[in-house]
Design brief:
Length: 159
């Protein structure tokens, strides 16, 4: 069996730079890369005017267990843990969350989960669709903020 090159999973630096430009950071805000990986591409591209930190489980810092507060939580979480990362980010972020995920990650944001985010003051502000020839399908950069000027509505009723 052929083993995939580990860089297959990494987000390309060009994509990260473009996505980070979409995040409305302000000077001196604290920004956490929730899962920096070996290449630290998100962490390395956080603007210099921000106070940046990173989590990486392989480096001994598990995002799902930290309790430090940050203005922003960003990155490309493991897709199978997308909702867990989003839920944790909503507990420790003061201003916003920006995560890249696949369709399964986006589909994990069901109405009841949007209600949970809303109860913590977070609303989906932007969806930016990207693609990478190495990966199957489209990918969604979701930006949540505490700005109530949102465009997405939902209903928790089951029909």
């Amino acid at each position: 069996m052929k083993v995939k090159d580990i860089t297959f999973h990494y987000t390309k630096p060009e994509m990260v730079k473009d996505l980070i430009e979409l995040i409305p950071f302000n000077k001196y805000e604290s920004v956490l890369d929730a899962g920096s990986g070996k290449n630290k591409v998100w962490y390395n591209n956080i603007p210099d005017y921000c106070l940046k930190e990173e989590c990486e489980i392989e480096d001994g810092k598990d995002f799902l267990t930290i309790n430090t507060r940050y203005d922003w939580i960003i990155g490309n979480p493991p897709f199978h843990l997308g909702w867990k990362f989003l839920e944790k980010a909503s507990e420790i972020s003061d201003k916003g969350i920006a995560f890249l995920g696949n369709l399964n990650f986006f589909n994990s944001c069901v109405p009841n989960r949007f209600e949970k985010l809303k109860s913590k003051g977070f609303y989906l502000r932007k969806i930016h669709i990207v693609q990478d020839k190495r990966w199957f399908g489209r990918y969604y950069f979701l930006i949540f903020t505490k700005n109530t000027n949102y465009f997405l509505s939902w209903n928790t009723k089951s029909y």
